[in-house]
Each structure stands twice: as C-alpha cells, then as structure tokens.
Write a structure and sequence with these properties.
alpha+beta, six-stranded antiparallel sheet
Amino acid sequence: MQVLKVRGSAREFSCEPLSRQLLSNLLWAATGVNRLASGKRTAPSARDWREIDVYVVIAEGAYLYDAQTHVLLPVAAGDLRQLTGEQEFVSTVPVNFVYVANLDRMIDAGVDRQALYSGTDTGFIAQNVYLFCASFDLACVVRGSIDRSAISTALQLNKHQRVILAQSVGYPAK
C-alpha cells in the first residue's frame, strides 16, 4: 500500500547515474524471468507472446535487455538519449527505456489486436517500473511523445518492430 501511495510521475531528474546493480534489479522487476521452469516473467503478456522488448538507452549507448539471460546486448554506441523523446529532460536523464513490440511474435493477431495487446503489455511493464521506482525513491515518467522514426533507425529496428512508449528513470532532482 505504501508503494502505491507514493507512486507518481516526475519530469525533473538528477543527472546522477544509476548503479549497474540498481539498473539490473530494475530491469528484472520490469520484465525479468521470475519462473525459471516456464520462462514466464514479472509482467504478464497476452497469450504469452512476450512481444515487448525493452531497449535501455544510457549515456554510453543503447542496449537490448535479454530477459532470458538477464543481460544487456549492445545495439548502438554513443549517447542516443535525445532521440528517446521530445521533452528536454530526456537527453540528461540517466536511463530511458524504449518499449518496442515485435509483431512477428504475435501469431494469429490482426492489426487491431496487435495494437491492443502490445499497448496493454507495455503498460504492465511500465507499471512494474513505476512501482519499483516508488519503492527505491527513484523518479520516472512514461512518455508517448517520441520521434518513432528517428529512434527506430538508431535502434536498427526492422519493419515488424514498433516503438510503443518510452520511460525515463533516475534519481529525483535535488
């Protein structure tokens, strides 16, 4: 109840980076594997498609979170944070997540269902991030204002991948 009471959105962040351990714990909370035998995750997924990929964009570069092995896979070098949204703070916040739907994983789903379920499944992951942040006194906000074409190019996405939302995470501004 306490975490729900303090959960909120913030748009002012400290530039202090998150520790690797804190980022690791945050990613596991977002969509990590919590049932090893089945590979199921902390966030539900319609029909167990697991279509949402989490890209992590930090000052050093962009990475794809591999939930099965709990590692970050390099995607692009360099600071791409400014491409994760249209708001000024995205270029200095320590972590920006970009939630991408891989539509190839959504077997037998029409366009309407792909949009519905990828949006819903992204919401589950984003809420896990919000709750984790509330429990660790971190600031975060989900954002839809993104130049989807620019970030898709930078992350080297293919025609079957769609950027759904982004989410910024960091310590609150002092």
